[in-house]
Design brief:
single chain, 405 residues, mainly alpha, two-stranded antiparallel sheet, two-stranded antiparallel ribbon
Length: 405
């Protein structure tokens, strides 16, 4: 059995961090970003060593470092230097912003041009676009005046003109273009060698391509609120810190050999246990609701809802003293997840009751309220990592059984 010692060290660091992050998420429903940094430092160093040991290609190694730096800087801009609600942290961070931008631009320049055996002219416009996108995003964030995060201000932003929606769309999705550029450059580095030009990255460029695609997908899921922020970054950092299996798992290596994909698959399969358990409990207790909702939620007392964890699954209206209710449709729920608005989180009810006085009064009148279960997804991710490293990809194993049968 082949053993990749740098990946073993990285896997231990990642697993220890995920266990600690799971505990934080259960306790506070929040994982501070600083939690990931020690793990990331160990994982990036180990992955860089592995890439050097297997390829002896500094251009490829720096290409990997540039991808990591880009994700970290994108998060820095997205969260304004981990600003507080009044924007004070961001105010003081502005002076450092352009200094952080410099290595983000220099690292791909070193990888794609300086350290590459030959310069592929097709990459030049992509680099110009890369630098331009980051410079524009930095400039726009530098000009931005931070706003508070109160419910009232979020409602006021909905009334802004369409131009504000365009600006919001750009600020949310600009980094996807950066990820696409990394993927395209990886392909150019792959095919430049096969086209007869001096070798650039060759076959190992597939590693950067897979990291770009999968980390980009996880980033998109996080921006659409399909994953929690901690869950999305956990998957991104697992991808960056352990791109391949530390050793051959018991069920064999899956075709891609990309560990993070197997972690996600295993986590999703393991996470199916919770809805089945919730359905059985609702069935035993006689909780009545449309079939789909009985898999993903349960009713709680309206006057104690702020003590629970989860998202409210119903909309309420009061007309002449009569409270009417309806379950939030699947499409509407997705829309609210994407916009980050219109969803009522019980944690917000507990921490900011002054912003939800009308909702809390309505819940008390309704008597009971259906909320979604709130098991942090980072727990299945942790279980998915452990099972993927030891056993491999569950879905691939099942597919092999059916093929053989």
């Amino acid at each position: 059995m082949e053993l990749f010692y740098p990946m073993v060290i990285s896997a231990v660091a990642v697993l220890a961090t995920l266990i600690y992050a799971s505990w934080l998420d259960i306790r506070d429903r929040r994982v501070p970003f600083i939690t990931w940094l020690p793990m990331l430092a160990v994982g990036v160093c180990c992955t860089g060593i592995l890439l050097w040991q297997t390829t002896a290609n500094l251009s490829l190694v720096f290409g990997y470092f540039s991808l990591v730096a880009s994700f970290l800087y994108a998060d820095y801009l997205d969260n304004r230097g981990r600003t507080d609600s009044e924007g004070l942290t961001w105010y003081y961070a502005k002076s450092r912003m352009f200094w952080y931008l410099i290595p983000v631009i220099i690292l791909p320049a070193l990888s794609w041009f300086v350290l590459a055996p030959s310069v592929d002219s097709q990459i030049i416009p992509w680099f110009v676009m890369f630098a331009g996108i980051f410079a524009y995003a930095t400039y726009m964030e530098y000009k931005e005046v931070p706003e508070g995060t109160s419910r009232r201000k979020r409602k006021e932003r909905r009334k802004e003109p369409a131009a504000a929606d365009v600006k919001d769309t750009i600020s949310r999705w600009w980094f996807v273009l950066v990820v696409v550029i990394f993927a395209i450059v990886s392909l150019l580095m792959l095919f430049s060698a096969s086209a007869g030009s001096p070798p650039a990255w060759g076959q190992p460029s597939v590693i950067i391509l897979l990291l770009s695609v999968f980390c980009g997908v996880f980033y998109i899921f996080g921006r659409m609120h399909l994953f929690g922020g901690a869950d999305a970054w956990a998957l991104i950092f697992i991808s960056l810190c352990i791109p391949t299996f530390p050793f051959t798992p018991l069920l064999g290596n899956p075709p891609l050999g990309f560990l993070a994909f197997s972690v996600l698959i295993n986590a999703l399969l393991l996470n199916l246990v919770a809805p089945l358990g919730i359905f059985v409990i609702n069935l035993i207790r006689g909780n009545r609701a449309p079939l789909m909702y009985r898999f993903f939620g349960f009713p709680v007392k309206g006057d104690e809802i702020e003590k629970e964890w989860g998202f409210v699954m119903e909309d309420f209206e009061e007309n002449k003293g009569t409270v009417t209710r309806k379950f939030i449709g699947f499409g509407d729920a997705i829309r609210r997840m994407y916009s980050g608005e219109g969803r009522v989180y019980t944690k917000d009810l507990r921490e900011h009751p002054e912003n939800f006085a009308e909702e809390l009064a309505m819940y008390r009148k309704a008597g009971t309220v259906w909320i979604s279960y709130a098991v942090p997804f980072i727990i299945p991710i942790t279980a998915g990592l452990i099972t993927a490293i030891i056993f491999g990809d569950f879905l691939f194993a099942v597919m092999k059984i059916f093929v053989r049968g």
